[in-house]
Write a structure and sequence with these properties.
By secondary structure, the protein is of the alpha+beta class. About 30% of the residues lie in helices and about 20% in strands. The chain is built from 3 helices and 5 strands; from the N terminus they run E-H-H-E-E-H-E-E. Strands 1-2-3-5-4 form a 5-stranded antiparallel β-sheet. Strand 2 and strand 3 form a beta hairpin. The N and C termini lie close together (about 5 Å).
């Protein structure tokens, strides 16, 4: 799904993911919903702050993989600004987002967009069998 590259767009993307996870059997207050929603919040905030190109939106995709992983992908159009974890300024108010993603996700990374300028930053959370819903939660035509 496509969102404006603004703080409002990032907020709407985060809310959509939380709603979709709830629809897929991960209630709003469940650890899975809270974790994936936080990961999404950090990745979309980074797309807005570091991947913004005027007039270009960012894209969001959530999928449930066959191995039980939930995968979030955020695509922006700025290829030259790859995500890196670093040591944030202890007095600073930013710079901790990817450290959170690194701590919460089982795996994450960035890949170049194959057919256009930009990159996709992705993160996966592997669910234990007890965390997997009993209903199918794969993507469908209206999935982001």
């Amino acid at each position: 799904m496509r969102f404006t590259s603004t703080p409002r767009g990032a907020r709407l993307a985060r809310r959509l993911i939380s709603h979709r996870l709830s629809d897929w059997g991960h209630p709003y207050t469940s650890p899975t919903n809270e974790t994936v929603t936080l990961i999404t919040a950090e990745l979309t905030a980074n797309a807005v702050r570091h991947g913004h190109v005027p007039g270009r939106d960012f894209h969001l995709r959530l999928t449930a993989e066959a191995d039980g992983a939930l995968r979030v992908e955020v695509t922006d159009t700025r290829a030259e600004r790859l995500p890196v974890t670093g040591t944030p300024d202890p007095e600073g108010e930013s710079g901790r987002g990817l450290l959170l993603v690194d701590a919460l996700a089982d795996d994450w990374g960035a890949t170049p967009r194959p057919s256009a300028p930009g990159k996709t930053v992705w993160a996966e959370l592997h669910l234990r069998s007890s965390e997997r819903p009993s209903v199918s939660c794969g993507p469908h035509p209206s999935a982001p």
